[in-house]
Design goal:
The structure is a homodimer of 380-residue chains. Helices cover 41% and strands 14% of the residues of chain A. By secondary structure, chain A is α/β, with parallel strands linked by helices. At the A-B interface, helix 1, helix 2, helix 3, helix 4 and helix 10 of A face helix 1, helix 2, helix 3, helix 4 and helix 10 of B.
Chain lengths: 380, 380
Amino acid sequence: MPATHQPLDPPDRLLCGPGPANVEPAVVAAMQRPMLGHMDPDLQDILAEVVALLEAVYRRSEGLTLPLSGTGTAGMEAGIANLTEPGDTVIVGASGYFGFCIQELARRYGANLVAVNADWGEVVANERLLEALEEHPDARLLAIVHAETSTGVAHPLRELAEAMSGSETLLMADCVTSLGAIELEPAQWGIDYCYSCTQKGLANPPGMSPISVSERALERIRRRIAPVGFYLDITLLEQYWIERPAAYHHTAPILNIYALHEGLRLMLEEGVEARWKRHAEAGAHFQRRVREGGLELLADPGHQLPQLTAIRVPEGMDEKEVQMRLLQEHDIEVGGGLGPTAPSIWRVGLMGPNATTATADRVIDAFEAVLADAGTPPSP
Amino acid sequence: MPATHQPLDPPDRLLCGPGPANVEPAVVAAMQRPMLGHMDPDLQDILAEVVALLEAVYRRSEGLTLPLSGTGTAGMEAGIANLTEPGDTVIVGASGYFGFCIQELARRYGANLVAVNADWGEVVANERLLEALEEHPDARLLAIVHAETSTGVAHPLRELAEAMSGSETLLMADCVTSLGAIELEPAQWGIDYCYSCTQKGLANPPGMSPISVSERALERIRRRIAPVGFYLDITLLEQYWIERPAAYHHTAPILNIYALHEGLRLMLEEGVEARWKRHAEAGAHFQRRVREGGLELLADPGHQLPQLTAIRVPEGMDEKEVQMRLLQEHDIEVGGGLGPTAPSIWRVGLMGPNATTATADRVIDAFEAVLADAGTPPSP
């Protein structure tokens, strides 16, 4: 038996790591509303409204768009689990942690994996992905990370999708760090399966994974032979979220759904393009100040995300110590490198309510104070 | 694009269906605390504290106890996914929706399923389960539902576990509706894998699935050959929740974890046995009044759960209409039969903060008012 525990009293942090970002106050307030049961007709109306809002944010009305009752990683797994069958050829481009994670999932699900890799911070060239597709025209799926959270690299997803137009191979994109932060047009570009999270561009707490599936991907799922697990079975989830009366599948995380409703509503109130623009401006401002301070960015400059910046740790400086001092002295969270093979970097996210030039300034000011004190002041 | 949406304004319901129950106000308040990032050292301390609290509530300190970042159904899937490999013999007893659901999962995961079924409302006799075990001594797993949410039946789990003592076959129990509501002693009885939810006995919103795994089950998981998916991989989750520094696996649903911390804390403050007693008393009171009102219960009287009561719908009465009138006229949610093969029943849960005789009276008074008005007054 543990000793008596006290209620939690966590400190107030500015969350400018790779995610979560801080939650919009109105979103937290929405989680205080009276909780309905998952079979309540009023909740069924709310589910339908969340789907409509999510379709507007994903800008796709055909196919299937809904949030999974798990975090972004569940969205990644649902893609591999539903879109592939054991023995299928699956091409996965990777130049960072999350690309490698998709590859690991493909392996675990028994795919014949074709890995197309590049160095951390590089973009996996579309030409190389298309070459792999030419070599494996029977590939069931090609997967790529739109916004690589571990490096700050933006993949030219639109160009890839356009080049794959006419191919029978499905296109899956990890949009965990892109949805709500940078341009994303699944329907217009032709992305068969997107998955994202709630705790970045959507200014929600983590807990759900919004996915968007094209009509042709849904048809493939319906024609598959091998069964899908259960919790992430997209066919069952479609019956639960869309059909009325809904078939029971699981107990939806109701307060997270209230939060998502409010987060999506606020996003549409701001305007999807306006939110992209806000992220672009905050990120550009931050990166300009980082460079002016003499620090280097990891990502290929032609493919730098605005919302997530990976800064190379200067020679001789302790990555962890700087991170800890930012947290303890300035109440600012930034990330470090992700995974044992990551380069030595700090990762700064300006997402959701933190995508402002004012927040960018607060973070870079704190960085400069800590670095100056750490003995290596960035020279202007 | 949808029309402009308004913030949610859901009605205030007394949630006395099969779950979710209403959330303790202190739990909702805990979700308002400042959100930390999932790699924050302060959050790591909170994760460790949640594990300690959950071990106290599950009353098991060996093995592995932690909450999955999904609802109870994720806990069910994690059991089958981690404890079995394709081709394994798996014995599953079922006499209600959730037992059949475990059987469906075992099939989907490629098990050689031995189904031991009984009618809805009956208990699957331990003798029959033990006979199946004798016929299949190589069975990897035997699974049963401790508290069948679809019928209100309590399985004699302790007796089953004791009879299986010495068997190499692992024992898995669905404790979604039992944890925090009726006696449950995984370590003392010898249950290898328990899974539950947060929205019933723990008085939390839905969103997480607390699991408890025995040491020998963990060893089996470590020795398995076939890979486990990823999101529900217990080995990876152990590294994420227990090892320090934690290895990244997914972004934990932080506000749900705050809620769980508070829910578990309140439960230990009340006392685990005291909470069982409260559920027992409220349920007994409710069931006495139901019988006095001339209504019949579905469950075998020797195996009736206190926290979940299935009431047979009297001949000629409309199940759905009564449910709707309770909701609309009395703001009380009760459940109906679950799934197309369920008998015609109402399901009343008195769980979490609703496990009081006062709430029991409120529900039965409302029932009597609606039934009287529906033309068939229950005779005293």
